[in-house]
Design goal:
Blueprint (H helix, E strand, L loop, with lengths): L2 E9 L2 E12 L4 E5 L4 H4 L1 H11 L8 E7 L11 H11 L5 H4 L2 E3 L2 E2 L5 E2 L4 H10 L4 E5 L3 H4 L6 E5 L2 H8 L29 H13 L3 E4 L6 H6 L10 H13 L15 E2 L7 H5 L8 H4 L4 E4 L7 H6 L1 H6 L1 E6 L2 E6 L3 E6 L18 H8 L4 H5 L3 E4 L5 H4 L8 H19 L12 H5 L3 H14 L3 H18 L6 H12 L8
Parallel strand pairs: 3-4, 5-8, 8-9, 10-15, 10-16, 11-12, 12-15
Antiparallel strand pairs: 1-2, 2-4, 6-7, 13-14
């Protein structure tokens, strides 16, 4: 009778249960794996053979046929090593088939039979719980992730032999244990930023409402320094948000062994040479930088230097807060609700408009450089601040700026107001048809916004984004309705006294 156990394969950030069935045929000894396996799964045959022998068991002297169902789903990763080894031993009569069928397994095997960690352990454990399995067995290094899943018996093991003894009732496996939270790295504090009051105010508004932000200015004026301090004024992750971040980072293979829940908001800063696949996800259907920044900050320094296809790939995530990747290998959707902070120089040399240094770029070069920021991308950026170099006297002033803790307190109060009003969403995440009723502008404020839209010719998307920012400014002021001064402030933060950056 064939041996049957259950494993799982990652599809995006979710895991799909896979039945691993083994039959032993009286033919020349060999191993055949069917069911659309990837090269890494095909190579598992030799790892599994060595691991079984090293664990003290006999490898069947038959033709071993391993079927992975559903057969039309591509199987990838090394997490099938343990399920295949157990299915072979179950078919050989070494493992209790009935008990093995009630558990879900994942783990990579070394040639000596030791279990190594796999990516996506949290998603695999969630799939086992949803599949009504009795429990899930994971490598010991993945135990901290498995322990995050409630209402599931998660066990951990160091070796294949221990798993076999557990299934046969001759041994026990420890329960997965929660990991102690890792200490947060030293947070960067806004008190380190001297001057740049307008940029600091824009950063506070961006944090309070979840808005996208563009800093423009010459090199050394503090664009990167300000962006790196945005996570320090954001609210702490909730437990649900931490679970989402953990699943994404685990599916991408970025979690350290024995690390548990993500507790710090992600801050991703890819280099401008990054490809579109690295930004939103590639053919292997792993999450890209946009998804890795979920519930955090995506910082794109030298924004115009990113390839055009990379910048344009961010259009949908900035609007829909998710990434949909369609490739030959399948179609998956990744969450991508992040705050974009982009930084740009005013021209290729960086010194256009600098008070003391001359720009060496031609007018056509400056136009081409500024034209890299297309209209659709600029439409999706709520705040734009033009920075000037800080005066030396102000730079070396003894009086520090306001600290991040004080700013964060105001951000928390503003978020509490909008979450109560918006059903748990930030102002930036409010749907287009809900902006006006939730912002609740006064008649003079609405007329002021309409008058500006008619004169400036702004798009409907931009007008709604301005109203969202005005709502955030009102929340920071503790105002119940959006007033004229809030709309004025939103307009200032978006246009900064100049026209928008469009080609």
């Amino acid at each position: 009778m064939p041996g049957l156990v259950t494993g799982a394969v990652l599809v995006g950030v979710d895991a799909v249960l896979v039945s691993v069935e083994v039959d032993l045929l009286r033919r020349l000894p060999s191993v055949a794996i069917v069911g659309l396996p990837s090269p890494s799964v095909r190579e598992a045959a030799e790892r599994v053979r060595s691991a079984i022998l090293a664990s003290g068991f006999e490898f069947p002297r038959y033709r071993v046929v391993i079927s992975l169902a559903p057969a039309d789903l591509r199987k990838d990763g090394t997490g099938f090593d343990l399920p295949m080894a157990l299915a072979i031993l179950a078919a050989s009569g070494v493992v209790d088939k009935a008990r093995a069928a009630r558990w879900c397994f994942a783990g990579e095997l070394s040639l000596s039979g030791e279990l190594r960690p796999v990516r996506g352990a949290l998603s695999i454990a969630c799939a086992a719980r949803d599949g009504q399995f009795e429990g899930c067995v994971l490598p010991a290094a993945n135990g901290a992730e498995g322990a995050l899943v409630e209402r599931l018996d998660v066990r951990t093991s160091h070796t294949l032999r221990d798993v076999v003894d557990f299934l046969n009732g001759s041994g026990d496996l420890p329960l997965a244990a929660h990991a102690a939270p890792l200490p947060d790295p030293d947070a960067l504090d806004l008190r380190d930023v001297q001057g740049q009051l307008e940029a600091r105010a824009a950063l506070e508004v961006a944090a309070a409402g979840g808005h996208n932000l563009l800093f423009e200015g010459p090199p050394g004026c503090g664009k990167t320094m300000l962006a790196a301090r945005l996570p320090g004024i954001l609210p702490p992750l909730t437990h649900a948000e931490g679970l989402e971040c953990t699943r994404i980072h685990s599916a991408a293979g970025l979690r350290r062994a024995e690390s548990g829940l993500v507790t710090s908001r992600p801050f991703r800063a890819p280099h401008h040479s990054a490809s579109a696949a690295a930004m939103v996800g590639g053919a292997d259907l792993r999450p890209g930088e946009a998804s890795l920044a979920h519930h955090g900050v995506l910082f794109l320094d030298e924004f115009p230097e990113f390839r055009r296809d990379v910048r344009e790939a961010l259009r949908a995530p900035l609007e829909d807060r998710k990434v949909v990747v369609s490739r030959v290998g399948g179609r998956v959707s990744f969450p991508a609700s992040f705050a974009l902070v982009a930084a740009a120089n005013p021209c290729p040399c960086g010194y256009a408009g600098h008070p003391t240094r001359a720009c060496m770029c031609s007018p056509s070069a400056r136009m081409r450089y500024r034209g890299q920021l297309s209209g659709p991308i600029v439409d999706r950026i709520d705040l734009r601040v033009v920075l000037s170099p800080v005066e030396p006297a102000e730079l070396f002033a003894s009086k520090p700026g306001e600290c991040s803790a004080a700013v964060r307190e105001r951000v928390l109060h503003a978020r509490a107001r909008q979450h109560l009003r918006n059903g748990g969403r930030t102002n930036a995440a409010v749907a287009a048809d809900e902006v006006v009723p939730l912002a609740d502008p006064t008649e003079p404020a609405l007329r002021h916004l309409v008058a500006h839209a008619e004169v400036a010719g702004t798009s409907a998307r931009v007008s709604r984004r301005i109203l969202r920012v005005a709502r955030t400014v009102a929340d920071l002021d503790g105002a119940a309705r959006v007033e004229v001064q809030h709309v004025d402030r939103a307009l200032t933060l978006r246009f900064d006294g100049e026209e928008e950056v469009v080609p």
